[in-house]
Amino acid sequence: MRSLLPMAAAGILFSVITSCVQFKTASLYDGVMERPKPPKPDKIDRVVEPVIFVDSDRDVWGMETNECQVASISNDIAYEGPASIKVKWDRGAEGCTWAGFGIGWEGWAGKDLSAIMDHAAISFYVRTIEGRAFGLPFVLTLEDYSGGLGFCYTANKYFERTALDEEWQQVIVPLGDFDIETENLDVTNIKQLQIELQQSGGVYVDNMKLMFYEAPPLEPWLEEEDLPDPLDFPITVFEDEFINGHGWGMIKDDCQDFSVVDKEDGTGKMIRAVYDKTSEECTLVEFGVSWNKWHPTDITPAMEYGAVVFDIKVPTGPGADDLNLRVGFEDYDRAVTFVKLQSSQITTGDYLIGWATVRIPFSSFPEDDADLKRVKHMFFGPEGKGEFLIDNIRLERIEAN
Fold first, then answer.
1. Domain containing 189 — which CATH number?
2. What count of Cα atoms within 13 Å lies in the side-chain half-sphere of residue 229?
3. 0.90 surpassed by pTM
């Protein structure tokens, strides 16, 4: 296969410029008409085989180990069925010129996608091999039998959630978003789908198919959302539910069971955190929330008066100084600043026998560990093994003495 790096870069740049709106002149005088949109077929399988990859290595190439990547059909874990594609890569490795894999699907037969280009998308499921990632540097490339190419970069807008982690999520890339003009892709004679790997990473990919897709109505892009002041304390971050629904990390696996549950007295909801991070495989054991709708937040003006406040209770376990709980902020470069829970931060109560209130001043957080002018979210990260209940998470102003 030839290297796609320069063409992919050009394709990505072109798609960024043209993906939102394309205009064609249509007038009574120049005779130019817009291409009519083909009618939507009843079923995709009447037009083309919709299954690109599920379980089998049939029609798949690139499952190999070289200086760029380690790729295989893996039985370690799968979204559905017994197997998935497992790939770990580093485009910066010495001698690496191209990384990726491809799928010829339907026995490498020529595939006519013209009837579904305006009605379908490529759907697949992805999760990280380990940890969390805030991008998926895939360039999806359709190639035809004459060498024409069409590109689309898997931007975050195609994700089901904001970031990738160790839970499966769906990625949906509309066929209409592919740049098919720059490299003259013939959509009536598709040979294969290539996945070019950029940067570095490690993921599982599974259940890749064509599906019907209809884009949601576009909101006017010139209208900026009217956001409240993210430092207008007090701000309730969690009380029965996360603010704006922007909590994350409420998952259950072998390392953690974080969930929103009913309070013991039935008066509302609280967060129950059960965790066991003693295994080396348990690296991402955290939950948290963005209180500013995922917009970057500058908290530096509040360093002298702001505080993170919450109520906590430990059903069983060690004392306050032995509960290894990190509370912190993460910026948009994934740098974090945090402090560990200490008994001196408890203002009222004893959480071994009931609810206690914790107050952590912003001034306690190291200011050089993360960019506090671009805070993405706050998080809670326990270590070791244990359980706690947490409620009424808020940001408050410390009263001057």
1. 2.60.120.430
2. 6
3. no
